[in-house]
User: What shape does this take?
Amino acid sequence: MQKIEPRIKQYEDMGLGLFIHWGLYSQLGVGEWTEFIHERPQAEYEQAIHTFTAADFNPKQIVHEAKKMGAKYIVLTTKHHEGFFLYDTHGLSDFDVMHSPAGRDLIKEFVDACNNEGIKPFFYMATYDWHNPLYKTDFNAYLEYLRKSVELLCTNYGTIGGLWFDGNWNKKDADWHLDELYGTIRRYQPDAMIINNTGLKNMGKVINPEIDAVTYERHTPDAVNHGDASKYVAGEISLTLNQHWGYAANDLSYKSPREIIENVAHSRKIGANILVNIGLTGTGAIPEMSRTYMHLLGRWTNMAAPAIYGVRPAAVVAAGNTKDFAVTNHLNTYLFIHDLQVVGNDNVVLGGEGINLRSFTGMFGKIKSINWLDNNAPVCFMQDTKKGALTIDATGFTYGTDWVVRVARITMSD
Ligand code: GLC
Assistant: This one.
């Protein structure tokens, strides 16, 4: 039997997080990899520190918007691959926010705003670094620099939700001195989650016993690798609204709200957390488009809230539409129903009329009633408790609505 650490259980209960990419690169508006991919000479690129004002950075508002979206935690890039720190490094590096016109510790402001709203602050930290020459010339010395930068994050901001590392994939076979790094976190922040992004190609790989959650960058697997018998490990998938993580003004290739909502729903199916990403502008504002998407997702998470947080995949399996699934908590089981249509009439034919049967197996308890979460309307059902078979008439969306994924609450007979 796998043991579940309380911090990992708490993390899984949160379900949905907001990912925020922000750095000097945001001022250029062409993605967070621009220095590398566009082969910008380092000295020239790093001049961007002199125009970094953070003039529109309003962490209170960001946290407020995150909360409205339904996020329970936020992962903010404290340093990305470019090597620029959004916090006061107290002399560890000149390439930090204190040496920019912003001149204030933005991570402190972020953490304060999170704490005020009951949102857990997580720190993204790039381990792969283009700024510090030691990364190439004296790797062990670089690792000590990295460890110290993490120590600052663990000691200057009170209790944090976790550390989210990214970049070990750049030196796959190197000794990253993970015991020292993770040991530092455990020493100061015993309840912090330790997450290390395994990169695009190594989905869900556990690289060190201290890892608390595995990542599936941009992927949505059908099952999560929860580790071996020695430790239960959580899973996390991540999603950008368009194609880039960092702000990219001319990336117009936004996912449809349908795709985003279906992905968030899917994360519940596989019992993985999901991070939805936005990139702040160069001055630290939420781009208009991102804000709109956040509001939209917030409508859905607000409707589906009881079925999103603190739930786990149920042993109830859809027999028809395999996108459909069930989750459960200690009180209720919820059905997630996909591909429904709007119920109209002959004049506005929207296709949702008629009987819309969906079947499930593994439902043995006797059901008292089933109701849609969006309007509380009852759902007709038939059940064979011996066989564990359940069929519902999944009606369709009430005219005037289309929630993309509809959720129904099952109430059991006592
Ligand atoms: C990648 C990229 C990085 C991004 C991250 C988000 O590993 O290197 O730019 O921050 O994915 O998951």
About this structure: The chain has two domains: 6-307, 314-412. The chain has a mean pLDDT of 95.
